[in-house]
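ok trying again, last paste got cut off:
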Amino acid sequence: MDAPPLHPRKTPPYRVHWNWEIFKACNYRCPYCPTYDNAAPSLRLPVSEWKTVWDRLFVRYGSGEIRFTGGEPTLYPDFLPLVGRLQERHTVNITTNLSFDAQAWIAAVRPENVFLSASLHLDHVSAEDFLAKLLLLWKHRHYATVAFVAYPPHLPRLKELQRSFQENGIIFKIIPFNGEYGGKRYPDDYSPEERALMDSAIASSAEPGTRKMNQALQGFALKEAAAEAPLCRMGEMYAKIEPDGTVRRCCSIGVEALGRITDEDLRLYDDPKACSAPCKCWKAMVVGRYEAQAKDLWHMPEHTIHKLGPS
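nice, full thing came through this time. structure:
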């Protein structure tokens, strides 16, 4: 099982990023979130079967990064044992509202090879309680970044919140709001004052990598979809797993499926492929552009045991 992978990746960051939207259920109802759906079906397998699936992909492509999204992935049945199995050979990154029991998490999940991307939702939790839970997790080496949606009613607190998290050494990401509010369509209708506030916060990012990430997020929000059909490494270095198990090369609407995550013969592309799907992805792996941004936007921490490098 620990032999070199059959098909190692040959371009930075040399590891596959698996974006696993494990299901759409969520215990929050945020006004700016269109994705939760407690009635949507999802593929449910025992942890032992999921381990078989991901061990097979380890043999094929080596240690990858499995990024859980949702919904709220920590609500998925047997999620903590599942994380425990996956972290044996892959790194795991979990986008979460942090509503889980922190003490139970600390007791059940080893801190190595697991990272949290915590989303702060002020309609459901106070910033003070959220920060306190993060600091408890950090005390036990469960590290997390924070993402904050720049929803117009919450914008007046942006600088204050950024300062409080950064003072504790926590990366603070600013996500542009995409939707309607007050008869306006965002992000296009942010006022000059609101944009100036966000620009000032981005300039105050604590370290250069976070500043570049926040700048890229803002640029993505305003970027027009590409008119050409460029060569792209999505499907080679990245795959999106939908709740029903369908695997697609990326998140764009209408993009082709590669198969199902449970298929024994599931294969990623071995080279970049042209793509004509509408694309506004701030991290698109377009050949000629991907190489310049791979280090900053696609950096993945190495697995503590299964380290990979250029082939």
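cool. The longest strand covers residues 114-120. The longest helix spans residues 47-61.
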